[in-house]
Structures are given as structure tokens and as C-alpha cells.
Amino acid sequence: MLSAFIRFEGVLNQAMARFVRRADPMSPDVPYTLHVIEEEAKHSRMFARLVAALGTGGYSPTGLHGAVERLAEPLIAQSRLIFHYSMYAVESVTDTLLAEILRAGTKYPALEDVCRIHRVEEARHMSFAAENFLDEYRRASRIRKFFARVLAPVIATAIYEVLTPPSVYVRAGVASKTKQAWSLWLASHRSPQRMDLRVRSMARVTMLLKKAGADRAGSRFAWRLLGVELS
Ligand SMILES: [Fe+2]
Ligand SMILES: [Fe+2]
Fold first, then answer.
1. Distance between CA atoms of 96 and 26, rounded to whole angstroms?
2. What's the CA gap between 174 and 169, in Å, rounded?
3. H helices within the chain, ranges in order?
4. Confidence band, pLDDT 50/70/90 cuts, at residue 144
5. Of the bound ligands, which one is closest to the alpha carbon of residue 114?
């Protein structure tokens, strides 16, 4: 998960740097966007130090998980609407998981410190992403709104699913082959606990979509397929 957080922040920073490059340097959005880039870079360093301290080793985006990330990257960078939605989704899914780590407690004080720091700083980024998304969705054309609604559940689910790659089971010594690692991954992802965590990690995302009025019929069906009710 720490490796995935570093990569997610890299994707966000890459897109934000591109927006800054295209924006009017005097635009009021530029200083804050640069500030977010700075904070995300600090978080990534913090996650990398934690990986080293815990001795977990890093995970590269390979196989199906890597392909999902490579597909998402250009999509996020091209549309501010999709970017702000994805930023909100990444941060709320991550934040739910960090809250869960703190709630359950661990043997690692350094990990808990990192969770606490990240939760405080991300609360600001989340309101920045939410306000921008609401504003951009309101002003978007009908076709853009439609694509945003269709992509919303896919993006949120992809974020949640790529966090834990099957290779963790190989490194933990509970699977010796890729096939075995994938069957453990599938069993874990279908377990009631993981399904429940997935639904909970998307609660704030679906609340934002409802606030934007992006919870129409087509989108409801896609969310339902993923086990999330837009009630
Ligand atoms: Fe962050
Ligand atoms: Fe952030």
C-alpha cells in the first residue's frame, strides 16, 4: 500500500504540474496547486522512509495492476474534471484505510504517526478537490458529465483494487507461484470484510457525486454492480 501511495501521489503531482504549466501564472489556483505538489512530495518521502524502516521492500506496478495504472494516468492528466474526481477518490479511499489502521492499532508507532500526519494534511486536499470537482461538473457539457458519471465507479474501484498486489502473498511466504497468489488475492477481495471496507471507503466519494447531482440512473447501475448502493 505504501508503494501504491507513492505512485498515486506521483500521478497526482504529474497532472498538477501539467495544469500549472498550462495555467496563467497569475491565476489564484497556481500557488495552492504548487503547495499541494509540495505536500504530496513530502508525503511520498515519508512513505518511502517508512518502507525502509519497516523493511517491507517496494512493489512495482507490474501485470494487470500496472496496466490499470498506465491506462488511468493519461486520462487523469487530460481532464481537470476527471483529475479532481480521481484526486478526491484517491484521498478518501486512502484516508479510510489509514483510519482503519489507526482504529485497529498496530505494533508499529512509526506507521501510526505517518497515518495521523497524512490524515490531517489530506483533509485540506480533499476539500480542494471536492470544490473543484463540484464547480467543474456544474459547468461541464452533457457529454462530459455523462463520461464522468460512467468513469466514476470504475476509477474508485480501480484505486481500491490496485492497492494490494497479489505479489504481497508471495513475499509474505504464503504463496509460491503467481497463480496461487492470484487465488489468494481473489479470495481476500471477495471476503465480506474486504467488501465491507470497499463500500465504506467509497462512502465519501458517492456523497460527493450526489452533491454534484452525478448519481443518475446509469451511474447507479454501475455502482450497484460494484456492490455500492447510491441510496
Ligand atoms: Fe498525500
Ligand atoms: Fe493529497
1. 35
2. 5
3. 2-22, 29-54, 63-78, 80-104, 109-139, 142-162, 167-171, 178-190, 192-201, 203-212, 217-225
4. very high
5. 1
In sequence order, which residues have a C-beta less than 8 Å from that of residue 29 and are 6 or more positions away?
19, 23
Distance CA 28, CA 32 (A): 8
Q: Taking the domains of the chain in order of start, what are their residue ranges?
A: 2-225
Instruction: In whole angstroms, give the CA distance from residue 149 to residue 214.
Output: 6
CA-nearest of 98, 90, 67, 81 to 11 is 90
Q: Taking the domain 2-225, which CATH number applies?
A: 1.20.1260
Q: Which ligand is nearest to the CA of 9?
A: 1
Q: How far apart are CA 196 and CA 8, in angstroms?
A: 23
| Cα 177 to ligand 1 centre (Å) | 33
The CA 162 to ligand 2 mean position distance, Å, reads: 18
Residue 61 phi/psi, 5-degree rounding, is -80, 90
- Its pTM stands at 0.90
Dihedral over Cα of 25, 28, 31, 35: its sign:
negative
Closest listed ligand to the CA of 36: 2
pLDDT digits (tens, 9 = 90+) for 165-212: 888 999 989 999 989 999 999 999 889 998 899 889 999 999 999 999
| Ligand showing the shortest atom-to-Cα distance for residue 126 | 2
The span from the CA of 51 to the CA of 45, in Å, is 10
How far is ligand 1, taken at its centre, from the CA of residue 39, in Å? 7
